[in-house]
Amino acid sequence: MGLRFAVDTGGTFTDLMVASEDGRLAMFKASTTPTDPVAGLIDSLALAAAAAGEPLASYLARGDVLVHGTTHAINAIVTGNTARTAFLTTEGHPDTLVFREGGRIEPFNFTVPYPEPYVPRALTFEVPERIMADGRVRTPLDEAAVVAILERVRAAGAEAIAVCLLWSVVNPAHETAVGALIERHLPGIPYTLSHRINPSIREYRRASSTAIDASLKPVMGAYMRGLESRLREAGFKGRVLVVTSQGGVMDAASVAEAPVHLINSGPSMAPVAAKAYAGGTAEETLIVGDSGGTTFDVSLVRRGRIPRSREIWLGQPFRSAMTGMPSVDVKSIGAGGGSIAWVDAGGLLHVGPISAGARPGPACYGRGGTRPTLTDAAVTLGFIDAGFFLGGKMTLDEPAAVEAIRRDVADPLGLSVDAAAEAIVALATEHMVQAIMDITVNQGIDPAEATFVAGGGAAGLNCVAIARRLGCRRVVVTEAGAALSASGALISDLTAHHQAMFHTLSGRFDRDGVNRTLADLEAACDAFAAGPGAGASAVEIHWSSEARYADQAWEIEVPLARARFETEADLAALVDDFHRLHQDIFAVSDPGAEIEAVGWNAEVRCRIGTGQPGRLAATDRPARLPARAVRFLGTEARAEVEVWRLESIREGVAIAGPAIIESDFTSIVLDPGARAHRDGSGNLVIAL
Questions:
Q1: Is 58 helix (H, G, I), strand (E, B) or coil?
Q2: Residue 202: its pLDDT value, please?
Q3: The pTM of the whole model exceeds 0.85
Q4: Running DSSP on this structure, what letter comes out for residue 624?
Q5: Measuring CA to CA, which residue among 647, 289, 629, 279 is closest to residue 461?
Q6: Of 14, 2, 18, 1, which Cα lies nearest the Cα of 614?
Q7: 633 and 671 in contact (C-beta within 8 Å)?
Q8: Which residues in the chain land under pLDDT 50?
Q9: Over the stretch 629-645, which tens digit does the pLDDT of each residue have?
């Protein structure tokens, strides 16, 4: 086995994890290049090659696999750089994308304009056809009318086409026929059919995911082709995989054909890494915080599973578009190391959501940034050693950080610079705590009974403060936590998610119909395992059902213990698991009530690596570093504290706060009263 690379492109830094032939890990960070993300990726590989003492081409030639987590898809949506897309839907139903789910946020404030649909009405076309809920054809497809519509689509300058016809999930014949007409009359224009990308019953979600997917195909197709081409030119000859929103990976060429799976590409890997590295018991809840330069991403590992959701909005609920696709449940806020601190006209302090990004970056980077950020506050307080940033590869300008905070925060608020810097860190901490509360308390999870797993380059600055505010008793910073998402990508499986709709009630359970549906899903999984997954060391299929109480509005995903329903006990297990999960999520259940299942899912996971978390290469550098003056949150003055080198701390050595524990890529603030030690996996375990 050759080298394995995992690259996560963030808003500020591009993280690289390399697994050598003997399984040892190495971590690298390069500045992200927002205008050309692939350049930042290759820069990180060049750093690894230089560390190995090899030319880049020969170093990459030793590589077997490169896994890439990218924000390119979500960035294209946010910046409006997606393709001009036409939306074809059933005649009489042109407003599916307009109505959304639930309407407006301010129901009584009509001065707020109603949000625009993802595809404007001017590019929405009504197709003469109608299929009923039972699959019967009420109005045959008018192919001549479709051809005329496609001519209008061409004249409108559409670069992609989304097709979502009513009840195509029951009978896809009309959508399939429209797809064939597109290929014949508009060859070369990418299109997406809703029954293939998202066969679910919810019309808006299916339409939205179809439109998003189609709009991304030209953009992501070009990006993936460019990525593979430039890697080949640089010398890489191995397999290029891309992280998906479901917490797995797919071949770059395949995912370019279904780019809606890439929207939460990077953040989905943080809980994968946390589950592998932090472990915990099957009953333990892990709260995963991934704090980078631009965002703070929160996710969970609950009872050994990573929760997923279909209610993923691309911004504010109802005001933005919903992906409608199963995705690792991640909440992201604009609070990272690069988040800008500012004081409004009323004298209130804000931190974020605007970020200084990679360029110009925080004031202390010396790249032209003049506005104070969370990183500048950390440098000012002594949390970060200005002379040892990125292991000494970058020297920070501490006076510039101090001046930016004095000018923009301290003077307007009448505070000392240290007090202003402390206020910036404290406010950023509170933003992060509220994001965690949203994803825990709102789902019936008591954060005080969970372990907080901190990852990302900025995680150590306030992970202990966050845990104290939540009431957590334990914090875990994984050995490779500064590149948490990249380390998760390195051990992830090749995956494919298949789903089908089949409605049945527990009181009148159609066992034969359900088993036929599951058999079809299993066949699709087997085909994937025999194709892209060929040669995998292990293959698993994870089954689930989307179920609800009869006449309830929303479904929840319930894991299935078996691939078929053969006995009454199998049905009873589904019903019991549904009631228990409903109680967990909503704090209410009705054990005597009938449930209805509306959808069935099968996710095939093919093990293409070891699947085991590796260890960073050992270092012979001393564990103790020179002490320095630090001002901790809630204190009145600076204190000289011990500084430790993370990689050099021996297993079991106890460190009592106040102290600073730092590596090349992160600085962990151990508040007074906290105690830390490294466990057998290299994790830093902090007890509060």
A1: helix
A2: 87
A3: yes
A4: E
A5: 289
A6: 18
A7: yes
A8: none
A9: 999 988 888 889 999 99
